[in-house]
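Appendix B, Record 12. Input sequence as logged:
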Amino acid sequence: MILCLFLTAVLPITVSRLLSSFEKGIYARAAATPAVIGAQGSRLDLALQSLYFNRKLENTVPYSEFKRVVAIPEITAIPIHVHHTARGYPIVATNNDYFSFRSLRFMHGRPFGIIGECVVGASVAGALQLKLGHSLLSDRPDLLGLAGDYPLKMTVVGILAGRNSSDDGAVFVDLKTQWVIEGLGHGHQDLESEEQAENVKRESDRIVALPSKVVPYTEITPENLASFHFHGSLDDFPISAIIIEAQDVKQETILEAKYQNNQRGLQFIRPEESLETLLSTLFKVKRFVSVNTWLVGISTAMLTGLVMLLSLKLRQGEMETMFKIGCERKAIATIQITELGIILAVGLGLAIAFAILLDWFATRGLENWIAGQ
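Logged structural output:
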């Protein structure tokens, strides 16, 4: 009977707790992100990308749009650009305002300062055994190298404390580092140096590079930092989204009005509202689980009652013997009620304990799971 009660109660209790944790977790991060500006398209994808870094948006926002927004008084704007990965973890290009916006604390090190530096989340540091000063290579989109792109070797200068959020599983860099990874900027080898003598040939007064041997740098150091440059105007370079935090509702409403019927292909969203589709599905599942729990509970109570009645009938002789040797009817009833109480307490107690344990393990990676969806 204990096993029966455990198996009957564990599913609805566990599902109910997990759904509540899911709802709380997704609401908390969405509510902490007042508004986002991004390219027109799926509002849900834009919300998930800005919150969990799990979407590669087809359309991007020009960097000039960020400069336009950040110049507005009483508006805090934070750029977000997610396009590449490092060892499978998303590389999130932003600025140092992001760390204070999310209330992220540095366990070791400092924020990034120059191109090529990165800050890693607690999960990334733990999984890859990274420490300050270690290097982390960006993943190569073209594994065969046919496109001529090269991974960037980034230096870890900061490790964030764990927050049980999607920030734990991200690699943070500045925008220029991300643009270098995308191939929008690069550095070149010094062809006049002795080390590169074998990679060039001279024709009269000219130096002719051998293309197969002269490649862009894959590591940015103080020695070659000055050689890195970008082709084109930075204003035209892409970012995925702009997180907006206004000092009051009035300023936020005014900014939203500017992006209604926007002719530049941009949109203004509130992540909490944009996640309604996902949350409405959650509520439907929760309602179904609640109804199912009541039905299962009623059937379990009826089954338990039937088993107890049959047990009492089979033990009727035992009860009569107890009465004849001096045990009062009231004491016999107390024994039977106590037996039932022990069965219910142990069965339901095990189910609740299992649900709490599973919920604890699940919530530790809740946002990472959401980020993968």
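The chain has twelve helices and 16 strands.
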